[in-house]
Amino acid sequence: MKLTDFQEAFPDDTACMRFLEETVWVNGRHCPECGCLNTVPLGGKAAERHLYHCRDCHKQFTVTSGTWLHSRKLPLTKYFEILYYSVNSSFGMASTRISEWTGVSQKSVWKILQAFRELQGFWLTLTDKLTNTVEFDTKYVGGQPRKQKDAEGNRVKNKRGRGTKKQAVFVAAERQGEVRATVVPNEAEDTIRPLAEAQVDPQAHIMSDGDGTFAKIARSFALQSQCSHRDWDFSKDGVHNNTAESFNSWVEHMRDVHFFVSKDHMQRYVNDVMTRWNLRVAVEREVTQKGQRVRKILMEKMPLLDRLRVIFGHAVGCNVRRNRKTGGIMVVA
Ligand SMILES: [Zn+2]
After folding, report:
1. Where are the alpha helices (DSSP H) in the chain?
2. Which pLDDT belongs to residue 126?
3. Is 208 left (phi over 0), alpha (psi -120 to 50) or beta?
4. Cα–Cα distance between 66 and 50 in angstroms, integer?
């Protein structure tokens, strides 16, 4: 979606409020306090503020009451503009860049985007599980360690992946489906198993690389297959974990945009990548493959407004508050 089209669709706060009302109140306008549908719009000046009155508990509310967009200092159009830049780009955009383009301070942009990323974590709370073929993998996020020398002055070869200080992310990816990516403190069976069982249907066919932990966990599911990357086996008879690997490369791309991602904020940035991945639709297209025209199913981005609708729709009843103890932010349901 072009920026001019977006600005035309959301010229003022009223348009933004209308969009939120249509998205959040799909099943009818309800009071955030008591949840009842017995509500009426207020007239006069209050109508300009999009205020409604609950006939049951006699409270007044708007569509943003009790959400992260409540008691904001910036106009809603600015929020939408910031989200446009972030959501519409392929792998996100740095808060410094968005700050330059929108005229909002970098600190505010960063805070708004962090709250938005925190909300995108709803994927991990969904109860509908991944089915059919599900691929497991672990992604290690972090930069190259500094060059080191041993006692004799020889260059030490750095280890890769497991056993390094990098942050581990457990990835469960359904083929032509959604992904669940969770930042984990370690890759032990006790850590991964509860996540796998909560996120994946027991009837699923699990595919993974030669990892021993995944092999043990996969036994609890209907079917399991492994391909040993150590033996240079990356795909045989449809057994591979290339879907999970390509999600991992998306996570890697994120680091081209956000040069430094601390471990404390890692899950939020992973949420962002997860949302980009999950909000795609399968489309059949004609493509050229080895000189021949063939029809293929490709995954394409959903239209921008539809993506915003899904994210806002799931954010109903979620409030992001500053956590005084840690100074960070958290979602209050
Ligand atoms: Zn009420």
Report:
1. 3-9, 13-24, 45-48, 76-88, 95-102, 106-119, 189-199, 212-218, 242-257, 266-278, 304-314
2. 85
3. beta
4. 15
Asked whether residue 14 carries a pLDDT value surpassing 90, the answer given is: yes
Locate 63 and state its tokens: 């569509």
| Cα–ligand 1 centroid distance for 64 (angstroms) | 15
Q: Ligand 1 center to residue 246 CA distance, Å?
A: 47
- How do the domains of the chain map onto residue ranges? 3-122, 129-278
d(C-alpha 48, C-alpha 39), whole Å: 17
- Are the C-beta atoms of 174 and 133 separated by less than 8 Å? yes
Cα(68) to centroid of ligand 1, in Å? 19
Neighbouring residues of the ion ligand 1, judged by CB less than 5 Å: 31, 33-34, 54, 56-57
Residue 68 and residue 117: Cα distance in Å, rounded? 12
Rounded distance between C-alpha atoms, residue 139 and residue 181, angstroms: 9
Q: What type of residue sits at position 191?
A: T
User: pTM (2 decimals)?
Assistant: 0.86
- The answer to whether the beta carbons of residues 206 and 224 sit under 8 Å apart is yes
